[in-house]
UniProtKB/TrEMBL annotation:
Signal peptide span: none
Organism: Stutzerimonas decontaminans
Keywords assigned by UniProt, alphabetized: Membrane, Transmembrane, Transmembrane helix
TM segment ranges: 41-58, 70-89, 129-147, 167-186, 198-214, 220-238, 322-346, 353-373
Protein name (record): O-antigen ligase-like membrane protein
Domain of life: Bacteria
Length: 417
């Protein structure tokens, strides 16, 4: 009965939860299959689920659950509540609109349903669930690429990337990370079981090709290549040589790229176009604003309240596109305290779960490299949460391998076994 419920009930739920957690069908100007309100529905489910687990577990909550609740509490207070308060005192924006603007931080609560489901399926099923969800996102990306499914967006502006898609890009990236990690070691990052390197290598190549030809987002491609270098290290030379051989036909016959539908002009213009112009304008506006307010925290504004930043900085001002500079705008001089403090807290949380940080280090180092273009703490919570969930599942496996007489028996850890 347990195997039946695991395979036919919890396993499909896990795939669905991963799809929702990484906003594969979340409403976005860049997602041709986005469903309005779906992200908010998932956040509401995560909040309710977390509260119910807290009430059900009470003092006997599993150790990982309690530790990750500290992570959620810290993230919500610092990156959700504080910017809303800063915006209230700087611009007079009601706090509720500030909370709405930074609601993506609440994706940290996604750990609760993911960890709950992860404990009710086998490790192999969990890994397959992650890869199936990533392949679903890749499938819809290719469908949009070849016009098999029409664009569902009501309006597509020229600067909303009409020729490209953004369908679960971070899920595709994370699936690629996981495949490369397994290909590097030949074992599962969770329980150390042997895995087929060839299979995961093929899936990794498929996911990377999806990012290059379908998603066509430069920072995500760089992110994947950096993770590969950080993860493989000594094997990076072999990986680079393999890529050179695979890409050699495109070097000798560049027309193949156009046949496959790659927008070569987009990749050539690394410093031109709307996106980069918007980033330059936003960053310059941020530093000019910080000079005017003496580097005091300013929070963030919501378009639902008096058109957000438009009256102050114009239509091309987006904190989500400038990564750490957006954090600098929100927190002002406090940024130089908030960033190291947050990295310290997250590191301590991970270390308290288990000391094996191999996968976490490689992933976070790759994200640091694109931090100027991506708000890691404000918009990267789905990835950070997923890292912690995998970390917690590994800790649970390692603890299950301990002889019973060596296990710590004090009450607060009983729920972990």
């Amino acid at each position: 009965m347990t195997n039946f419920s695991s395979r036919f009930f919890f396993f499909p739920l896990l795939i669905l939860a991963l799809i929702l957690h990484f906003s594969v069908f979340g409403d976005s100007p860049h997602n041709p299959y986005g469903i309005k309100g779906l992200n908010e529905l998932y956040l509401a489910i995560s909040i309710v689920f977390t509260v119910l687990l807290l009430l059900a577990s009470a003092e006997n909550a599993p150790r990982e659950f309690r530790i990750l609740m500290y992570y959620c509490l810290y993230s919500a207070v610092v990156f959700l509540i504080f910017p809303a308060i800063f915006a209230y005192y700087t611009y007079g924006q009601p706090v509720v609109f500030g909370l709405i603007e930074e609601r993506r931080v609440l994706f940290c609560l996604g750990f609760a349903p993911l960890l709950f489901l992860g404990k009710r399926v086998s490790t192999l099923q969990f890994e397959r669930g992650l890869l199936y969800a990533a392949l679903i996102a890749a499938f819809f990306s290719w469908c949009f690429k070849f016009g098999l499914i029409p664009d569902m967006r009501a309006e597509v502006r020229s600067d909303d990337r009409p020729d490209r898609s953004s369908i679960g890009p971070y899920l595709i990236c994370f699936g690629y990370f996981y495949c490369i990690q397994i290909w590097s070691k030949g074992i599962s990052p969770i329980n150390g079981a042997a895995r087929s390197k060839t299979l995961y290598m093929v899936i990794a190549a498929l996911l990377l090709l999806t990012l290059v030809f379908a998603t066509q987002t430069r920072q995500l491609i760089v992110l994947c290549l950096l993770f590969t270098l950080f993860c493989l290290r000594a094997k990076a030379v072999i990986w680079a040589a393999s890529l050179s051989i695979l890409l050699s036909p495109f070097y000798f016959f560049p027309s193949l790229l156009e046949i496959l539908g790659l927008n070569t002009e987009f990749y050539d213009s690394t410093l031109e176009g709307v996106e980069d112009g918007v980033r330059t304008h936003t960053i310059s506006s941020i530093f000019a604003h910080l000079d005017q307010v003496n580097w005091l925290p300013s929070g963030s504004l919501s378009l639902m309240w008096q058109d957000g930043f438009i009256p102050y900085f114009g239509e091309h001002f987006f904190l989500s596109d400038v990564g750490v500079f957006g954090t600098l705008f929100r927190f002002g001089f406090l940024t130089f305290f908030v960033i190291p403090m947050t990295l310290f807290v997250y590191h301590r949380i991970a270390k308290n779960i288990t000391t094996d940080m191999t996968f976490i280090y490689s992933t976070m180092l790759a994200f640091f490299a694109i931090w100027p273009l991506n708000g890691l703490f404000e918009y990267g919570q789905p990835v950070i949460t997923m890292l912690f969930v995998i970390h917690a599942l590994r800790a649970r496996h390692l603890r299950s391998q301990e002889p019973i007489h060596e296990r710590r028996a004090y009450p607060q850890l009983q729920g972990s076994y």
